[in-house]
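Task: fold both queries, return tokens.
Query 1:
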Amino acid sequence: GIDEALDEARSLERDATSWLVGYQAKIVEETGIGALKVGFNKVFGYYIEVSKANDARIPPGFVRKQTLKNAERYITDELKVFEDKVLTAGARGLEREKIVFADLCRSIAEQLEAIAAFGDAIADIDGTQCLAETAYRLEWVRPEVDDSNALELSEARHPVLDASMRDRFVPNDARLATDDEPATLALITGPNMAGKSTYIRQTALVVLLAQAGSFVPATSARIGVVDRILTRIGAADELHAGRSTFMVEMTETANILHHATERSLVILDEIGRGTSTLDGLSLAWAIAEALAARGSRTLFATHYHELTSIADRMPEVTNLHVTVREWQDRIVFLHRIQPGRTDRSYGIHVAQLAGLAPDVVARARELLATLAVHEGEAAARAAAIPTAPAVDADSQMSLFTEFLPHPAIDRLREIDLDALTPLAAFDALRGLVKQAKPQNDA
């Protein structure tokens, strides 16, 4: 309906049968030859076929095109014009489409400013209407956004999961830099699958929605304006750029530390898990202290329980944990965030839920019982003192303390292994045992 010539070309390109049926009916009526038919073949094109018995009734406008045994085939000027249109319909349609499109572009360009303004207005209306309808349907509330640094959410919910799960989703509070909770950094501990990641994500999404002008999924919300939301979530490498998973993690964390201000909201999920335990713990500890000192509102989910001792000496840090219940050697996730710390990650329980073989789970429990060492208190002392603290001979050596010098260790360093015979090695070992035994007895 936009262009008559284009419509005609497209119609002929798709289907010429309807025109031929009408044309055949027309010439049958004009000539009175009922057996006349209009056809097409790839060699001769379109034709009007009339049996030889009707030769005397052929009108003057019919031009002979082909002779058959019992019939003659003719063409007329009108049919020839139609044939030319059909054979060139594709090319003509394409050329006409280009002309129509160019004209359309020119007319649009003349109204570009008005069209852009109209698009902006429709986008604003559409976005606002969508947020309003969602807020009404899901019972969201109007947040209070002010110039404070407070983050105070009551029974906040994840906007996506809340819509899909509804009554099954467990809401949680979030409070940082408030009268009730002056701390700006929350360390969140608890088992996998319990809801730590969901909790920090939903908090960031609520803040984002509030600053976009939307109502939010909570019963009440007071949010001090943030200048940016900085996140370190997930595990992914960039091997094409020569960066491992841990390198990507550290690069993103470095970017956060470079740009976070006291107005920023930072969410961190499992920092330092891509390297050795001590390296990762040390990095996570230092990063948490830096963000706490800066005053950035931060939610830091971690399995490093040792970090929870930071709250004992830094008022800017508070501890949160995800509650679980143990029942018949299994755990039940309550998905509720509560103040306080936890010293277990329940990783073996989660592995059992995932279907790990029972013998592997049993062996893991044995190893856990052997390897478990509580280092939180010693770690806090080490972090608070610039130099390594002295270790009581009766206490277990801390992971954060260097090995104490010992004559046996010095003797081991002096031994030339390449020149050591089996008998000499036995004698050296016997001497080391004698040298170490008084130290152990003490």
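Query 1 returned. Query 2:
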Amino acid sequence: MAKISIKLTGIKELQQSIEKRKDLTPVKMIVAKHGALLKEKTISNMGAAYTAGYSTGATARSVTNTIGDGGLSATVAPHTEYFPYLEYGTRFMSPRPTLKPAFAYESVKFVNDLQKLMK
């Protein structure tokens, strides 16, 4: 009967690579950084879009950035009940998007920073 032997090489390198990638601190830092930048960009967009005389700044003041999932997610949201009407418009009012453009802008930077970690 033939004797079969298997030799695995590179196990130490594989283990070191796995241990190195197990630390998610850099990812958490990127999430926190871009969550804060998304909040700032959204508020900045609101300042430019909400220029009517009746604008009080309540929606901009209501924007929060909440870090969750152990630092792996950031939720940026305005908390006025009428924000959806401002963002998407109504049949009487044209939309004044602020959050969606901020997200489109910041998400590209976020993905680029995450890809730099993989190199």
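Both queries returned. Flag for query 2: The chain has a mean pLDDT of 87.
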